[in-house]
Structures are given as structure tokens and as C-alpha cells.
Amino acid sequence: MKIAKIETYLLSDQLEESFFFSQWAYSERRICIVKVSTECGIIGWGEGYGPADVLEAGIKLLQPMLIGKNPLEQEAIWFDLYRKTLDYARRGILVASISAIDLALWDIKGKTFGQPVSVLLGGRHRKQILPYATGLYFSQGENLASRLAQEAVSYIEQGFRAIKMKVGFTPEQDLINVREVRKAIGPDTKLMVDANHAYSLREATELCRKIEPYDIGWFEEPISPEFHQQYQQLRTKTSIPIAGGECEYLRYGHHELLKNNSVDILQIDICSAGGLTEAKRIAALASTYGVEIIPHTWGTGIAFHAALHFIANLEPVPGRLFPPDFYIEYDRTSNGIRDKLTSPCICMKDGYIDVPSRPGLGFEVDEDVLAYYSLPAQNGKKVS
């Protein structure tokens, strides 16, 4: 078996209404996915996390290193790509490009052996995973706190048991928003906050003190990802668990968070940190520190399926007869690509999502949807 072709697709969904968070606004969802084809006709799909146009350029740069290789030897391929880009790409977009390719190779491997990727990773510790709804972004208009509260209630009505909301506006406005959301959803729904590294240590400490009474499940990226020691200091100043890691790359970046005691929860992004191959190594590293992993997940059904398989394989720390639920991030912001590109559809039942049991990553890509959202042209009617 040999890799015969690497194809990239830039996908774009223009949003009817923009939304924003502490760093920038979204008026478009733009995503890069990759299709890896073998000489025997088996196809794998992958996705990278980062600026889509730059990701595409990164994948094209790596393409000559892949043609003719055996896709089943994904660890050897991973190391070859890493070694040949090490001098200029120890972090950032090329690691995300390697991640996209790595997911596609795992998809091929599963399809080749007729097994789900979670089994090939070493087996499933769980068959169901608890999703939390990521939403409650900022938008223009009056009564923001009231609108966020209404949105939160809509997620509970859909069956979610946990919700993550954005903070990072100002500590004063964040307090108003958190208070109104908690009041609307009641005490039994888990509530997390995410600042996208908007605050200084002083501001993050202030906000923690303001929102501690509202039973916050974790505070995600309170401070710039550059300041590992400040993360550690913040942990000593609050009872709220501190989460981070989506801006780190490879086992080396995540090790900095771990050895500095920076986080209670490590948030690997599989589509940027090095793919499933490297995420498996990061998980082993985190287990030696006794740190919980809840991956950051953002993009299409490709990324979501990869996260399901990865989480299914995570060892419970500590192990016990009745282990706690493991969480997966489920983005609920507007994204037609996420909702329509892959099938079967992602379905939540009784608050949980089943780990896919089909071979590979467990989905098919709808070629009509792929063609519709692909740049530069988006022609025809929307796919329903």
C-alpha cells in the first residue's frame, strides 16, 4: 500500500450574523481539510486547526515527503515530517499541517483493518462521552447578559448537561453575564468560562474572585499562553480549576504546562498539537502528572470524530469502579460545514454521544457538500 495523492480543500461558510470573543470577530467559518488517497483506493480524511489558507500551504509543502510512503506506518511518517521541518517549524502552522495528515493516515489505517481508530489506539475505556455545549459568544446589541442566558437555556432544552461561555469582555461585564447565565440554568448544569487569554494575572485573579460563588467548572485560558508561571500562580489564588493547552504544540509544549503545574485540565487540540499520534504521547505524559485531559475541539465533524476516538482511549486517572464522565467540546456556533460535511450525523442521546464503531474515524464525507463549500466558488443552493 502506498500514498498516491494528497488533496486539500479550503471550505468557507459566510455567516448571516457575526459573533465575537475576546480576540476577534467571526463573519466566516473557513476550514482546511485534506484527503489522502492510496494506490489501492482507500481514502482518509484529516483536518487542521488554524488559518485555513496557511494550513493549505503547509500541507502542500509536506506533500512531496508523503507520496509513495506506506500510510500504515504513520509513526515513521510523522517523525519524518517532524524531523524535516524541525529547523523552522517547531511550533505553529506546520505542526497543524502534520496533524491534518496524521488524522487522515489513522482514518486509512482503520479502514484498512476494518477497525475503529479507538480500537487501534489501544482500546476503549468508554463507549459514551458527555458533550458540553460551547457557545455564548458576544454579539452586538443591547441586553447581552439576557440574550446569553436565553441561549444557555436553549442548550439545556437540547439535552446538554454542561455549557461553556465566553468571558474576556471586562471583569465587570463578565460577572454580570455569568451571574445571569447561572441564574437561568440553575445549580445542576455544569458551567465553564473561557477568556481566550484576554487577561493579565491581576485581572484574571479579580474575575476568579467575582465568579467563584457561581460554581464554575473550569476557567479556560485566563492568561496569555506564554506565561506558564502566572498560570501556576493563579491556581494558588482560586478554587476554580484552571484549564489551558490549545495554544501549545507537541509533547514538548504541553510538558512545559505540566512541569510548571500550570493547569488542572490539559486541553490538547488534536488538529494542531501533532495529530492523534502525538496526542497519544501527550496523554501518556499527562498521566504521569495526574492531570486530566479534555481536548479542545473546533471545526468540522472530522475533528469531532477524531476527538471522540481519542477520548474513548484515555485512561481514567485515577482508576475506580465507577469512573467520572469524560467530556468532549461540542461547538454550537453557526457552522454549516460542521453540520453537513460528514455523515452519519452526530446525535446526542440522553445527554451522551456514542463513540463511532465504524472503521477508521467512522464517517463519510458528502462530496456535494464538499463541492458547495469549497473555495473559490460557492455555487447553487444551500444543501439541506
UniProtKB/TrEMBL annotation:
Q: Does the keyword Iron apply?
A: no
Source species, domain of life: Bacteria
Question: Which residues are in the Mandelate racemase/muconate lactonizing enzyme C-terminal domain?
Answer: 145-241
Q: Which residues form a coiled coil?
A: none
Q: Name one Pfam family in it.
A: MR_MLE_N
Q: Which InterPro entries match?
A: Enolase-like_C_sf, Enolase-like_N, Enolase_C-like, Mandelate_racemase_C, Mandelate_racemase_N_dom, RHMD-like
**What CDD domains would the database entry show?**
MR_like
Kindly list the biological process annotations in GO that this record carries.
carbohydrate catabolic process
Concerning SUPFAM superfamilies, the annotation shows: Enolase C-terminal domain-like (SSF51604), Enolase N-terminal domain-like (SSF54826)
Keyword set includes Zinc-finger? no
* Keywords attached to this entry: Isomerase, Magnesium, Metal-binding
In the record, what terms sit under GO molecular function?
Answer: hydro-lyase activity; magnesium ion binding; racemase and epimerase activity
Needed cofactors: Mg(2+)
Q: Which named protein is this?
A: D-galactarolactone cycloisomerase
Q: State the organism named in the record.
A: Neolewinella agarilytica
